[in-house]
Amino acid sequence: MLRNTDQRYGVVAMVLHWLMALLLIGLVVLGLYMSGLPDVGFNKQKILLIFYHKEFGILALLLATARFAWRVGNVLPRLIVQLPDWQKVVARFVHLCFYGLMFALPISGWLMSSAAGIPVYFFGFRLPDLIAQNEYRFQLLIDIHMWLSYALIGLIVVHASAALRHHFLSRDNTLRKILPDLRR
Ligand code: HEM
Ligand code: HEM
Question: Tell me, what's the pLDDT at 184?
Fold first, then answer.
């Protein structure tokens, strides 16, 4: 079943969820690692890692666009009925914040590169600069990109712990509805 039903996520939403979870966690780990490398001299390894981070960061932006479009055009599976109202609101709010971050992170990274005067490439294509070179804005965007990443890390911890708690402690269908149904 490609599309969502009101009971469970369809194949497209499932694939996008898990592919993007891997990609975003990978980008956070790579981002934290590479930005900690020393700048002294011409650090070839750091430059190469930033290059990959930017390419895969733009891929995340494209996937986020496809995912958002798919979500808008699909029914949203219901949250389990026995969930208290406040938890329903928090769960949906976290999902909404994830969508915000899936756009804000790559766009802030792209703006940051433009402000630094360094072009962004996407697998061979040179993307346009979003803003003019400006040192003050570059420094500001580094901070914005970093704090957005910290927000993403915090939300992933809350979201993944809630999912695991539902699966192993409450033993309900929450996690199963976004995993392949192996009984069929
Ligand atoms: C969802 C996508 C992205 C995530 C999760 C992400 C995450 C991160 C993280 C965690 C850091 C380290 C922050 C720090 O400690 O300072 C970082 C740094 C960086 N990111 Fe991203 N990023 C994403 C997309 C992008 C994109 C699309 C670009 C550019 C086109 C980009 C450019 C950079 C650059 C240049 C740095 C190094 C900043 C510095 O000099 O310290 N990022 N990113
Ligand atoms: C970067 C990491 C992650 C992000 C950005 C993310 C984002 C999302 C979003 C936006 C949804 C709502 C459905 C949709 O629009 O696709 C969702 C649903 C869900 N996610 Fe994640 N997720 C991540 C990682 C994880 C992990 C690691 C787990 C499990 C340990 C998990 C378990 C779930 C479950 C069970 C649902 C279904 C919730 C429901 O509708 O009741 N997610 N996720």
Answer: 59
Q: Is the pLDDT of residue 41 over 80?
A: no
pLDDT of residue 170: 95
Contacts of 170 (CB under 8 A, 6+ apart): none
Q: 47-86: per-residue pLDDT in tens?
A: 999 999 999 999 999 999 999 999 999 999 999 999 999 9
CB-ligand 2 contact for 3 (6 Å cutoff):
no
Q: How far apart are the first and last CA of the chain?
A: 11
Fold topology of 11-178: Fumarate Reductase Cytochrome B subunit (1.20.950)
Q: Which residues line ligand 1 (CB under 6 A)?
A: 24, 27-28, 31-32, 35, 50, 53-54, 57-58, 60, 105-106, 109-110, 112-113, 120, 142, 145-146, 149, 152
